[in-house]
Amino acid sequence: MRGSTRGLVVSLLGTVLVVTAQAPTVSAPRGDTVSGTLVATVADDFAAGEDTDGLGIIPDEDPTRFVPLAGVEAADLAVAPGERVRARGRLAAGGLRTAASGVRPLTARSAPSEGSTPLVAPFEEPEVAAAARTTSLLAITVRFSDGSGGTVDKARLSRTLFGDGDSVSTYYSETSRGSWTTKGRVVGPFTVSGSTRGCDWEGWGDSARDQAGRTVDLSAYTNVMVVWPTAACGWAGLGHVRGPYSWINQSTPSVLVTAHELGHNYGLPHASSYECRDASGRRVTISDRCSVVGYADPFSAMGNRGARLHHGIHRQDLRLMSTRNVAYDEATEVDLAPLYAAGGVRALRIPRDGRSSYVVEYRRPYATFDDFASASAVATGVTIRVDQGGDDSLLLDTTPDTRSLDDAALQVGRVFEDPTTGMRLTLEARTSSLASVSVSWPSTRTPPAWLEGAGRSRANVPVWRPPADLLRP
Ligand SMILES: [Zn+2]
C-alpha cells in the first residue's frame, strides 16, 4: 500500500518466507478466532519520515475494539481490507498472532481492486461535482494509571480539531472548497493501565472506546480518535486506512498529524517524492533509477512537512474534482486554472506507462493552509507528480540540482521530458489566474508496448479509476 519500492521489497521477502517456512507451518496457529472487518493501518513516524503498515480486525461482536493481526502482511492475503474475514490464531499482547492461511473471507469476494489494472483505456473522465460530506469525530483523551505525561488539554484539542481558523475542520472545509463539514466533541480523560514508557496502543484504544461508550453513543460518530500524552510508540499518529479509528501519540496534538490520520481514514495514501538519478548517478527529474522518499511532498498534509491542502491526485481520489486527460500522442495546449479555483481545468493527467500517469497542477495562495508567498516557486510554476493509482503520490523535482523540494515546480519557459514516451511538457506562460502548458510528443517514436492492449489510437487516455471503496458512506 505504501511506496512502490518498499512494497516490492516487502512482497519479495514475503514470498521468500512463504517458500522457506511452508513445510513446518502449513496452517495457522489454532485456538482463538476473531470475525469482523479487515482494516489496514499505517503508523506515522513524522520525525523520522518512516511508516509501518499493519492489519487488524474490527470484531463483529464488539466494534469498539480493534484487534491487530501479527504474522501476516496484506500482500500475503487473498482478502483485501474492507472485506469481512474470520481469523484464527492465538490472542496475546499485540493482537492475534496468525498466518496468511488463517485469514479467510466471510463474504463473497468483491471485484478485484482497480488499482492493479492498466491506467490506459478509451474513456473520457466526467466532470465531478464535489459531494457534501459530514464527518462526526469523537476524540477521546486518555491519561495513564501512573500519572506519567499528565493530561491532554481538552480545550486546546477541541480548538485544534473543531475551532475556527487553524483547525482540522477548517482544513477539510478548505480542501473541499466548502462542501465538507467536520464536527464533533472531545471527551475524557479516561484512565488506562500504562505509562509513557510503553505503547499498548491497541489496549489503550480499546479501553478508551469502551469507557467512553458507557456514556457516549459511539455509533453516532463516523470517526473515533483516541489521544494520549506522548509515550514510547515511535510514531505520532496511527490510523485506519479506509476505516473509522485513529490513535494519536502527542501531548499537544497538531493539525498536521490529526488531519493526516483522518486522511488515512478517508483512504488516502502518503504524499511522497521520487528521487531519481541518471546512469552516472547525477540527480535528474525522472529516470528509470528512482526511489520513493516517504512523506517528502511539502505541498500536502499527507506528507510530513506541513499542513498544506490536498493536491490534485488526492482531491480526485476524494471525488472533489476531475482532471483533463491528455491522450497518448495528443498534442495540445491547456490553460490550467489554479487547483483551488471554483472551476476550469484544475489538473492535467498525461499517460506515463501502463500503471501510472503524470498529474500536473497549478497552485496559488488559497485560504488558511495554502498560504504560500505568491512569488514562491510552487505558486509561479506547475507541479508535476506521478500518480500510481492508489499508492503514494510521487512529487517530481524539476530542479534536481537543489536538494530542496520547495522549488520543485516547472517554471515558465522550462520543459519536462518523459524519457520513455518522449512526451514534452512546457510551461509556456502564466498569470495569477492561469498557467498555459503545452504537451507534445515525438513524431517518429514507436508507441510503447503498454499501449498494445488498448490499441494505439489517439483515443487512449490515462484513466483515473476511483480507488475501491475509497470513501466510506
Ligand atoms: Zn500516514
Automatic annotation (TrEMBL):
Domain Peptidase M11 gametolysin stretches: 196-280
A Pfam family reported for this protein in Swiss-Prot or TrEMBL: Peptidase_M11
A GO molecular-function descriptor: metallopeptidase activity
Entry keywords, A to Z: Signal
Recorded superkingdom: Bacteria
SUPFAM superfamilies from the UniProt entry: Metalloproteases ('zincins'), catalytic domain
Signal peptide: 1-23
InterPro entries, alphabetized: MetalloPept_cat_dom_sf, Peptidase_M11
Annotated protein name in UniProt: Peptidase M11 gametolysin domain-containing protein
Source organism of this protein record: Phycicoccus avicenniae
